[in-house]
Amino acid sequence: MTVSVHPRVVLLDIDGTLLNYRAELPASAAAAVCGARANGHKVYLCTGRSRAEVYPELWDLGVDGLIGGNGSYVEDAGRVVFHQAMDADVVARAIAWLDERALGYYLECNAGLFASANLPEAAAVAIGRPGADGEAFVRGVFAGMHYGTVTARADVNKISFALVPGLDLDGLAREFAGRARIDTWSATGTGPEFGEFGQFGIHKGAAVERLAAHLGVPLSDLIGVGDARSDLELLTTCGTGVAMGNAPEELKAVADLVTDHVDDDGLAHAFAALGLV
């Protein structure tokens, strides 16, 4: 494989792309990121996670910065380039809606993750692992989560909640029309287990454009890698879009390259195919 000598900027989703669905970092993926940076390329994490959920093992890869909260936050070399939080009134209304239905949920902020006391139980059921073992898994994945009574904050990027059968998400979207974007996401890669209150106009593609303008590089020099529906704008905004083998067909359809499954060294194979390592 010929290594590209032209510096590129790689935007890398975390869950299902860099990490597998068990929140494990494959050795091949870590080596690929480190190798690309050693070859002069920049690598940024581009994730639905807020900064508080980007743990030391990820920063220890030496990444250049972060797009977090599905685009609500952009950081380059420790400098905040952009940050837009949810309206505090919308946050308060969302909390009231969730509490009325006793749903397990958490506020995603750069300063921390703030969850209802019942989140571990609700999330374990949602991902198909009810019981003590599943709850322990959830607590392990959400290291540093603050549990208890949740109140509105002014620094919320988005709000996630565990789905339950029969929940009327269309009705929720109508209730919050024009105030919050309602979506779903998967922690297992097998189907939606969580709902989400997000911000209108905030997505990974818009954040990538902000980062490119800040860096002074053309979008054609950007490589976006992802595995989920929330990565659609990422792949279509970047000059080169890469879908993981475990991605849904709608993401593969817009990708310039489809690599292998995250558990089959898919990220490393993509980096090699693109000449990054």
Give me some keywords for this one.
277 residues, alpha/beta, Rossmann fold, eight-stranded mixed β-sheet, six-stranded mixed β-sheet, 30% helix, globular
How would you explain this protein's 3D organization?
By secondary structure, this protein is α/β, with parallel strands linked by helices. It has two domains: 9-84 and 202-273, Rossmann fold (3-Layer(aba) Sandwich), CATH 3.40.50.1000; 88-198, Hypothetical Protein, Haloacid Dehalogenase-like Hydrolase, Chain: A, domain 2 (2-Layer Sandwich). The chain contains ten helices and 14 strands. The chain has an eight-stranded mixed β-sheet with strand order 5-4-3-2-1-12-13-14. It has a six-stranded mixed β-sheet with strand order 8-7-6-9-11-10. Helix 1 runs parallel beside helix 10 (266-273) and helix 4 (119-126) crosses helix 5 (132-141). It is globular, with a radius of gyration of 18 Å. The termini are close together.
In angstroms, what separates the terminal alpha carbons?
Answer: 8 Å
Low-confidence stretches: none
- Globular, elongated, flat, extended or rod-shaped: what is the shape? globular
Which oligomeric form is depicted?
A: single chain
What is the succession of H and E elements? EHEHEEEHEEHHEEHEEHEHEHEH
Q: In CATH terms, what is the fold-level topology of the largest domain?
A: Rossmann fold
Total beta strands: 14
- Give the percentage of residues in beta strands: 15-25%
| Tally of helical segments | 10
Biggest sheet strand line-up: 5-4-3-2-1-12-13-14
